[in-house]
């Protein structure tokens, strides 16, 4: 509290005392001090609560941060152990798939504490925060990595030093294959004199490759004896602990430079490491095993002929930063291809039985070997049924297999690729980089592999331009194409082929096909007895290759080695669900949302909304396509009063007639809006008959044309547009096309042929040019939030067979005798019945007398058949102007003939026993004669 708030009550109390001289006014002087003390106490209590809450929140945040830090360190440690597993893992993996599948010439000097790539940012001030930041930068029990080509010196007792150095050799030569690694430069004169290193001669790494890796290793009694040129020095004092010094590039010891940089090395934070020792016997077995494996592959020296079969498990992983993959054997070693450096795209040709599918499977396996789904994903497109790529489905890198068996799904997936191009462009722009190579793993490379490219273009001609666009822009976006077909000539556009410098041709039918693909006719001369033999052309240089055969077991091991990762993002959106409920909609979906629209070209889904102002709408669908449910859904979601009309012809007639009359009412626009939903309109027309159907469709046309202006919003569902209904439905503003009975019906209804789907689920269809899925129907209710959603036809008027006293009933019936009998049985006296079909009895009341008097002493029933009344038509016209006329057991022709009116009476349901009641003003209603 401020000093002003403290002093003000004292001053005011003094002023009051001066004016009133009342001692009570001085009590106000105490308000300031009391309020100040209370405010101070409450402030301290509030600050105490806030401090405790903040401390608890801070402790929780630090605990969660420590958990995240431990998880990040564990993931980082696992990644380092995978890249440099150590000597024991190398010996255990001699018979596995990891042999010769390393990416770089690095070794683990042992497990120790190195600098972590994880960092905790922020301005740390408290001790626990500083400790957390310090712990984040330390990675314990991680490999201490060094490059042998930059020199590794091992110091200590000779027995221990040589055992340790054998471990480094085992790591290195099991990681890289012959051709990428040379024999080591070993400084151990005493050991060579004793034959300690004779087993190195068995290694298949006989010659140094041009520009390849030459390890530099040495054994020394003391670290002071290590000459310049070694960047790592390991000092062994016992079999379980060693001290390591790793010198970076530019460090000077004893006046000499210590060699090159170690880019993959983490900064060593503690000198102590756990060494791995390997006995000479194990080293000799290791060298013999490598020699045997290399001999089986023809490695280590040039072979005179290619093997007829190569196993994928015997190939080393190509590794590297691009998409280098080992796919087979050449006369000089392993055949490696790289879509990044040799591509960016490739063409593969080969006739049936030449091994084309096997080549593609092995290529994919080689690309994903040693790489996670964060680095590369593969989309497979197989237009010969999908069986060729089925084994690849186990790989976590495969984001989907598109086949020609699901035509609609293939179309939407392929069209999504345009959206994938735009998405990748936006992501690179957001990262501020020019291509995916600079994105540092933010975007995985996407390889699109198409088998039977010609068949795909035949099915989707428009996609030729899409693939040409991908070929032109794919390199920077990290999208690569492998297009395989039997005869690429004449199928692939020149602009597409120009971006495919990597070519592979298995056996083809003609020399012209071979020259078109690889620039030589060698592929046409390949033997049919050796499937998998192909000509590889990289920038015009052709090489003969025997493609490796990949088994399901190989792919299973690759999937297991990749480990569990989050599923990769698919380059297209998943299809719409077959059953869509309210729970599947986004949280912001309102009651007007009736479904979802599929936008594959944008990789999005849009919410479908229906408002009455969008009517008139027509829903067309075959049987069991969900049209009745969609109709009711649109009616219920409109938010206004709704009437759903079923296939009952009386109900349909009355509802349409009432709506048509409202359209003619000048003041109808001020009335409450109404959605008129008519189901099975074509079935209604069939039940009405030709004459009634024409009249009903005429009224329906009036509603479709003028209804919205009068506040009537029609929604009509039908299976087919036939007869007079066709002209009426053409007035609709929009058409919802559900599953049709055939592709022809689908196209004739105006929908794109590529969106035809024979297996489209109920509620699925085409609306506004998009594939849509409507919500599944919920429980049917007669009212929703007080609004009618269904309404029966107008009930018939009850007409007593015994007229009331003083009234007369004029009745036309084709069976007047039956009516008279019923009337007498109901208690009508004989003198009150006038039957025009019978001669009048003596003294009986005549119609003329009835008309002359005008006063009826009792109720009178005048009955006759249509012919009798036509014979006395003037009498009928006079009675009709005074009394209602009932037609029972007659048809519409009788009504129109006697009333001389062109208007059709309302239709009657068969077997209902109803008739028509014609009022004096010409109105017609259904009626039922009641005996009592």
TrEMBL record:
Residues 332-515 form the FtsK domain. Keywords: ATP-binding, Nucleotide-binding. The keyword Nucleotide-binding applies. This is FtsK domain-containing protein. Signal peptide: none annotated. ATP binds at residues 350-357. PROSITE patterns: FTSK. It comes from the Bacteria. It comes from Gryllotalpicola daejeonensis. CDD domains: TrwB_TraG_TraD_VirD4. The keyword Nucleotide-binding applies.
């Amino acid at each position: 509290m401020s000093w002003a708030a403290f002093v003000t009550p004292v001053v005011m109390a003094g002023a009051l005392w001066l004016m009133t001289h009342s001692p009570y006014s001085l009590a106000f002087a105490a308000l300031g001090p009391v309020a100040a003390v209370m405010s101070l106490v409450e402030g301290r209590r509030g600050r105490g609560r806030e401090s405790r809450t903040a401390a608890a929140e801070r402790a929780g945040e630090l605990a969660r941060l420590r958990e995240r830090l431990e998880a990040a360190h564990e993931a980082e440690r696992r990644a380092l152990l995978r890249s440099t597993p150590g000597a024991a893992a190398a010996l255990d993996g001699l018979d596995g798939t990891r042999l010769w599948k390393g990416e770089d010439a690095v070794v683990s000097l042992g497990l120790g504490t190195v600098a972590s790539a994880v960092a905790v940012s922020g301005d740390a001030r408290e001790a626990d925060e500083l400790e957390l930041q310090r712990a984040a930068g330390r990675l314990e029990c991680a490999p201490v990595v060094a490059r042998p080509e930059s020199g590794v010196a091992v110091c200590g007792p000779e027995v221990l030093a040589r055992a340790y150095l054998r471990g480094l050799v085992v790591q290195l030569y099991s990681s890289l294959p012959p051709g990428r690694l040379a024999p080591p430069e070993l400084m151990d004169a005493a050991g060579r004199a004793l034959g300690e290193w004779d087993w190195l001669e068995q290694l298949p790494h006989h010659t140094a490759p041009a520009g390849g890796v030459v390890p530099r290793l040495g054994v020394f009694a003391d670290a002071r004896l290590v000459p310049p040129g070694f960047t790592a020095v390991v000092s062994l004092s016992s079999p379980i602990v060693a001290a390591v010094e790793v010198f970076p590039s530019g460090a000077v010891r004893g006046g000499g430079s210590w060699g090159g940089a170690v880019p993959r090395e983490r900064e060593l934070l503690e000198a102590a490491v756990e060494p791995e020792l390997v006995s000479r016997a194990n080293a000799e077995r290791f060298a013999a095993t490598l020699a045997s494996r290399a001999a089986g592959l023809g490695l280590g020296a040039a072979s005179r002929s290619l093997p007829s079969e190569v196993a994928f498990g015997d190939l080393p992983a190509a590794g590297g930063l691009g998409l280098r993959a080992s796919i087979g054997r050449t006369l000089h070693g392993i055949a490696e291809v790289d879509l990044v450096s040799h591509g960016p795209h490739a063409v593969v040709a080969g006739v049936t039985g030449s091994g084309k599918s096997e080549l593609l499977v092995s290529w994919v396996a080689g690309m994903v070997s040693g790489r996670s789904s964060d680095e590369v994903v593969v989309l497979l497109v197989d237009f010969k049924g999908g069986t060729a790529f089925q084994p690849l489905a186990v790989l976590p890198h495969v984001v989907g297999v598109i086949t020609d068996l699901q035509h609609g799904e293939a179309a939407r997936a392929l069209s999504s690729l345009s959206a994938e191009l735009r998405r990748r462009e936006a992501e690179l722009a957001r990262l501020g980089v020019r291509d995916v190579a600079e994105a540092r793993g933010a975007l995985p490379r996407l390889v699109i592999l198409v088998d039977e490219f010609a068949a795909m273009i035949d099915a989707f001609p428009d996609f030729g331009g899409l693939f040409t666009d991908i070929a032109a822009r794919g390199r920077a976006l990290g999208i690569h194409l492998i297009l395989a077909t039997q005869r690429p000539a004449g199928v692939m556009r020149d602009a597409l082929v120009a971006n495919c410098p990597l070519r592979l041709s298995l056996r083809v039918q003609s020399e012209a096909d071979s020259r078109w693909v690889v620039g030589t006719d060698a592929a046409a001369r390949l033997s049919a007895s050796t499937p998998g033999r192909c000509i590889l052309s990289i920038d015009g240089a052709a090489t003969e290759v025997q493609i490796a055969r990949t088994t399901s077991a190989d792919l299973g091991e690759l999937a297991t080695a990749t480990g569990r990762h989050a599923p990769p993002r698919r380059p297209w959106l998943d299809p719409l669900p077959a059953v869509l409920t309210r729970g599947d909609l986004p949280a912001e979906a309102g009651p007007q949302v009736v479904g979802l629209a599929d936008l594959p070209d944008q990789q999005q889904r849009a919410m479908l909304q229906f408002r009455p102002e969008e009517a008139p709408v027509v829903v067309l669908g075959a049987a069991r396509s969900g049209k009745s449910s969609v109709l009711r859904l649109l009616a219920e979601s409109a938010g206004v009063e709704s009437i759903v009309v079923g296939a009952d012809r009386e109900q349909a007639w009355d509802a349409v007639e009432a709506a048509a009359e409202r359209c003619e009412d000048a003041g109808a626009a001020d009335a409450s809006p109404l959605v008129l939903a008519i189901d099975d309109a074509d079935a209604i027309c069939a039940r009405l008959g030709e004459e009634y159907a024409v009249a009903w469709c005429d009224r329906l046309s009036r509603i479709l044309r003028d209804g919205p202006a009068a506040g009537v919003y029609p929604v009509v569902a039908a299976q087919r547009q036939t007869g007079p209904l066709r002209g009426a439905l053409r007035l609709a503003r929009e058409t919802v096309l559900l599953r049709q009975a055939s592709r022809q019906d689908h196209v004739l209804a105006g929908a794109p042929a590529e969106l035809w789907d024979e297996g489209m689920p109920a509620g699925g269809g085409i609306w506004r040019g998009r594939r849509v899925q409507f919500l599944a129907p919920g429980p049917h209710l007669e009212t929703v939030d007080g609004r009618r959603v269904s309404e029966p036809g107008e009930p018939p008027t009850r007409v007593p067979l015994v007229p009331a006293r003083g009234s007369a009933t004029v009745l036309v019936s084709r069976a007047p005798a039956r009516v008279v009998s019923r009337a007498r049985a109901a208690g009508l006296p004989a003198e009150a019945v006038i039957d025009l079909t019978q001669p009048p009895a003596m003294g009986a009341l005549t119609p003329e007398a009835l008309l002359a008097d005008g006063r009826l002493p009792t109720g009178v029933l005048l009955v006759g058949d249509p012919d009798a009344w036509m014979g006395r038509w003037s009498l009928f016209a006079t009675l009709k102007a005074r009394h209602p006329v009932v037609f029972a057991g007659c048809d519409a022709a009788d009504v129109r003939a006697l009333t001389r009116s062109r208007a059709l009476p309302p239709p009657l349901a068969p077997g209902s026993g109803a008739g028509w009641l014609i009022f004096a003003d010409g109105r017609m209603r259904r009626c039922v004669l009641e005996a009592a």
